[in-house]
Amino acid sequence: MIPLSPLGFGGGPIGNLYAEVSDVDAFGALEAAWDAGVRYFDTAPHYGLGLSERRIGAFLAGRPRDSFVVSTKVGRVLEPGFGDGDDMANGFAVPATAWRRWDFSADGVRRSLESSLDRLGLDRVDVVYVHDPDAHGEQALSEAVPALLALRAEGVVGAVGVGMNQWEMPARFVRETDVDVVLLAGRYTVLEQGGAALLDLCAARGVSVVAAGVFNSGLLARPDVGSTYDYRAAPESLVRRARRIAAVCARHGVTLPQAAVSFPFRHPAVVSVLLGVRTAAEMRAAVFSSPVPDALWDDLREEGLLAA
Fewest beta carbons within 10 Å, which of 51, 56, 189, 231? Predict the structure, then answer.
């Protein structure tokens, strides 16, 4: 497996997720991440119809290629579009200059990766994830993964993985294929630990785990009414639970975002945590120098806010 920095930069938000992010803010967030020691940058064609890949590629241009790690994803091929309007129906505040076509075939994988390399300005990608194959599991297992493993053998791809917002299907990939890494979004956080079984399986099989969505799409960053959970409005019951967790954190001098970033590392399978931020200020708020005390996790368990 390619070595990853403990903290990675999640490129979804700078693809204009939910709202427009200016170039100044996007590059400020990337610069703050670099200054904080982040050397792993994750993106995907899905994020802003390629905007995230273009911004990350522009930021990394000129830096020594062996000084950073980039991952992108396959499964959605971008086809040129000429319609008016924006892409907000898919969650991104960008012009609708393209449309996504699900494609987990070997040809689709190669086409998607070639386009990603062009947007990134790179000749190779360190990690490629099969992205959200929820409704396409069989084709992803039988066609996409073998195609990526062949590209890994050719040296075009450094490592092969699967990235999803659920844990059950990635477990199949771990059991049935030779993937190197799983990107698990939102299912192993300080708010919920449903993905623990997958992490245990990965640890037993020697498969690395990258924890994404550690803020559960926003709720663990700002537990306010109107916050998002799984990219939808957060239920009031979860807002209350997040506030209770935040109160326990405050007693230990820890912010809720800091606890959210620290928690996944308590499992030995987790090698990196992706931070999805929009600005330099958000990046700096998520990085901290002192460790989170073990007593915090003990108190969360005692109050029934963390699984035993």
Answer: 231
Three-state secondary structure readout of 28-97? HHHHHHHHCCCCEEECCCCCCCCHHHHHHHHHHCCCCHHHCEEEEEECEEEEECCCCCEEHHHCEEEECC
Domain residues for the domain of 95 are: 7-302
Q: Is residue 2 part of a domain?
A: no
Tell me the C-alpha distance between 108 and 293, whole Å.
Answer: 47
pLDDT value at 35 more than 80: yes
- The SS3 of residue 275 is strand
Asked if 215 and 221 touch (Cβ cutoff 8 Å), the reply is: yes
Please count the structural domains in the chain: 1
**Judging by DSSP bridges, how do beta strands 76-80 and 98-102 pair with one another?**
antiparallel
Question: The domain that contains 238 carries what CATH number?
Answer: 3.20.20.100
Condensed to tens digits (0 to 9), the pLDDT of residues 150-206 reads 999 999 999 999 999 999 999 999 999 999 999 999 999 999 999 999 999 999 999
Q: Is residue 307 part of a domain?
A: no
First and final CA of the chain: distance in angstroms?
Answer: 30
For the record, the structure tokens of 239 come out as 């807002």
pTM to 2 decimal places: 0.95
Catalytic residues: 47
Task: Specify if 235 maps to a domain.
Answer: yes
In the structure, what pLDDT confidence band is assigned to residue 285 with cuts at 50, 70 and 90?
Answer: confident
Q: Is residue 108 part of a domain?
A: yes
- CA–CA dist 116, 78 (Å, integer): 10
